[in-house]
Amino acid sequence: MISLSTSIAGIFFPSCIYNASGALCTTRDELAAIGNSYAGAILSKSCTLESRTGNPEPRYQKLPFGSINSMGIPNAGYKFYGDVADELKRFGKPYIVSVSGLTLEDNVAIVKHFSSIPAIDMLELNLSCPNIPGKPQVGYDFEMTKKMLYEIFAVNTKPLGIKLPPYFDFVHFEMIAKILNEFPLEFIQVINARGNSFKILYISK
Fold first, then answer.
1. The dihedral sign for the CA sequence 140, 81, 159, 104
2. Helices and strands, number each (H, E), in the chain
3. CB 103 within 8 Å of CB 135
């Protein structure tokens, strides 16, 4: 048998494949379903300071070869994802919490709180949600991204990685790489999602 196990920041993953922080990792039941699956880790929905209902329906569509969504970060609020950490450890795989506060101050407060919870193994800082009306992706603001990371690492004690939006210009590749190399990031997720996408469904006669 070929092993698909791996490790990140010294943390063992029984498989290198696990869920994205997307459409089906928001509730206690959804997180438990990931725990019961073959996924190598349990990654929570990106969380905000307060709970959010997200974008109006329809916002998720399962397709023959995947899915398309515009969720808008529906989540139960950051304290919920800390409160369930202990019960999720029964599945014997890493628990990663995704953080996507709506402001710099929110992100700092959330990361500081999660740093005090032993059952949370890693954190993912999501700077790339394309589906919140009126809120641009922080990952495209290089100055703010750098400031955000400085503030986060001043309070963080967990292995932490970052989720980035897609970049389409080689100058932007160089700019973001220069910033990220200044910080002790344990992983980089590229790319999160492409915004402004759609799938045309039709029924033939």
1. positive
2. 6, 9
3. no
75 Cβ contact partners less than 8 Å away, ≥ 6 residues apart = 26, 45, 46, 47, 48, 51, 52, 54, 81
Active site annotation includes 16: no
The tally of domains found in the chain comes to 1
Residue carrying structure tokens 């790489």: 177
Tell me how crowded residue 10 is: count the other CB atoms within 10 A of its CB: 7
* Cis-peptide into 191, omega within 30 deg: yes
DSSP state of 10: T
Catalytic position from the list 16, 25, 47, 129: 129
CATH number of the domain encompassing residue 123: 3.20.20.70
pTM over 0.85: yes
pLDDT tens-digit profile of 115-159? 999 999 999 999 987 666 667 789 999 999 999 999 999 999 999
Both tokens of 158, joined, read 């967990």
The C-alpha atoms of residue 39 and residue 18 are separated, in whole angstroms, by: 4
Tell me the chain's radius of gyration from C-alpha atoms. 17
> Could you list the residue range(s) of the whole structural domain that residue 92 is in?
17-189
Instruction: Quote the CA–CA distance of 155 and 23 in Å, as a whole number.
Output: 29
